[in-house]
Amino acid sequence: MDRVLIVSEEVVFASHVEKTLVEVGFEVALQNNENGLQQKILDFKPEIIVVKGGSAKLSSLRVGQTLKEVIKYTGKVILILNKNQNIDPNDINRVKMDYLLFEPVGAVKVVSHVLNLMTEHKEAIRGRLNKIAENDQAFRDREEKFMVSGKNADHEMVHVTGKAAKTELTHVKSKEAVGPEEMQHIKNQIDKELIDNEALHAKKIEAYDNAISNLDVDLKVGHKKRQTNERQKALRKELLVDPGQEKLDSLDQERRRFATALMKKKTD
Predict the structure, then answer these.
(1) Residues 28, 99: one domain?
(2) Which of the listed residues 11, 25, 143, 204 has the most CB atoms within 10 Å of its CB?
């Protein structure tokens, strides 16, 4: 896999990435518009296509869609979009892409992602890229034009490879450490959370104790099935006990008294 097609109307960017790819061993072709893209692919037969554009003349998403739906391109595709570009999820499903990058993007990031799509010789090529990024001042000057203000090629190498360049080692080692005051603050936060959790647990136990305080049951043992059946039979017997004639007569008198009062109210 050694042929890369760069599709971009940004001449300076395309030339910088092209020069970098050629220096590390790739064969590169350029295309600055969408017209004639299919013929260019047929003629050059690229294994990887890098697309960067956000204008009416050339759009990364539109090219990605063309590659998938019209050209039926089967190689690998890297699309580069503007940093603040809004993307419709439906559009993403319709485009051909293996990587989606957002500006700012320099040659280091592009070449690194190209290498990620390769299966052979990529460690050797990555070594060449690292050497250029560390020692070629002309390359570093060009690369920094595409970086965020204040960042340089060393920062990009750390970002994409996880390894610091020689000039970046001191800076990386001096990253903020957790000091004694911050450690004490963290310890205090943990202690507070433990105390709060313990208080909450105690409240839950108290609420549970209150809920079961009136139960005449050994909760560790519970009721056996036979005991439950016997208790149900006893309750049924209690409900079926004859209240006695005196109780029934009293209830009957109350009913008659209520009926008389009700009829009197209606006649009034």
Answers:
(1) yes
(2) 143
